[in-house]
Amino acid sequence: MKHGIVALALLGGAVVAGCGGSDGDDARRAAIAGVVDQRIVPAYAEASTAGDALRDEVSALCSSPTPAALTSTRTAWRRTMAAWRRTEAAAVGPVLQRRTLDYVNWPVNVARVKALIAGDTALTPLGVASVSSGSRGLGGMEVVLFAPGDPATITRGRRCAYLRATSGLIARELAGAEEGWTGTARPFAKVLTGGDVANPESPQDAVNMLVSRHVDLLEMMVDQELTLAASSTNPVDRRSLLNDGPAASAAADMANRLRGVRDAYAPIEGGSSLGALLDGTETRLVEQLDAAIATADAIAGRSASRTSSGRSPGRSGTSRCSSRPRWSANSG
């Protein structure tokens, strides 16, 4: 996989060096347009739709806390997390300006989630938005939704108010991120593709922005987390290395982040992707990403099997492998 990272780094270097002229800019512009229009914008739309569905499932669960409603809400949570993770390869522009990560999936602090539910802070979207980032988001919902107990226990007291408020905030932020890419007020899709003639990104800078994001993700996931987890034969050690939570979704999360990177380089029917700029190495890069995704999926399958057998995953503190752990006793 390191060869794939090298290929991405070389692509970024070529862009910075301006290897060029108008033909080079035309190729970059076509690649950015293809990735933005056919991969990034649909990914953010899917995340927004998933967030709305999660909010609605939470409302149904709180109105009627049955086993079927809990299962449906957990499924909606997984779908939202998967869709969000796939957008992380394009965590530029609107999500940085809006600080979407802070609201949707900042590393969770379990103690603070429990303290918030036990306290007297108003559990509304506005109230939850005003507290520590580690007290909310998909990670905070995971603490409550995937806790042991029957549906009545999981939704008891202020827990339902917390789930309603947090899911409402997540839905709002995911819709805002989509709006930032496609809305009427200077949509970032036009800025990145050069359609905003008043203040466009240059084709060189636009490609480099995405490539830099991909390199950062790959270095963290593949060189560190995935390699270590795949090499471990002990399921407990594997989950600890991935810093897993009660939903046992860390490996699936990684696979979906890798899919987001792959989306940018895989061929696009009737269009161009960033792979077209790699000058012959794009096939190898996509194959390497596919192999990494398969490894993460295999680990995810083992984790899901262990969870369904009744043995819940452990929680660790700050992982030595991840710059932004999902589970922490102290973060946020």
Task: Give a description of the structure.
With 332 residues, the chain is mainly α. The chain has a single domain, classed as M75 peptidase, HXXE motif (A middle domain of Talin 1, Up-down Bundle), CATH 1.20.1420. It is 69% helix and 1% strand. The protein has 15 helices and two strands. The longest helix has 43 residues, at 21-63. The relative contact order is 0.17. Mean pLDDT is 82; it is low at 13-19 and 306-325.
In brief, what are we looking at here?
Helix content is 69%, strand content 1%. The protein has 332 residues and is mainly alpha-helical.
Question: What structural keywords apply?
Answer:
globular, mainly alpha, 332 residues
Topology:
Layout (H helix, E strand, L loop, with lengths): L1 H16 L3 H43 L3 H21 L6 H5 L1 H5 L3 E2 H9 L6 H5 L7 H9 L5 H4 L3 H25 L5 H6 L9 H29 L3 H8 L7 H16 L16 H27 L18 E2 L4
Parallel strand pairs: 1-2
Helix pairs in contact: 1-12, 1-15, 2-3, 2-10, 2-12, 2-14, 3-8, 3-14, 8-10, 12-13, 12-14, 12-15, 14-15
Helix-strand sequence: HHHHHEHHHHHHHHHHE
* Structural class determined from secondary elements: mainly alpha
> What is the overall pLDDT average?
82
Helix content: 55-70%
Main sheet characteristics: 2 strands, parallel
Radius of gyration using CA atoms only: 20 Å
Spatially, the strands of the biggest sheet line up as 1-2
The gross shape turns out to be: globular
Proportion in β-strands: under 5%
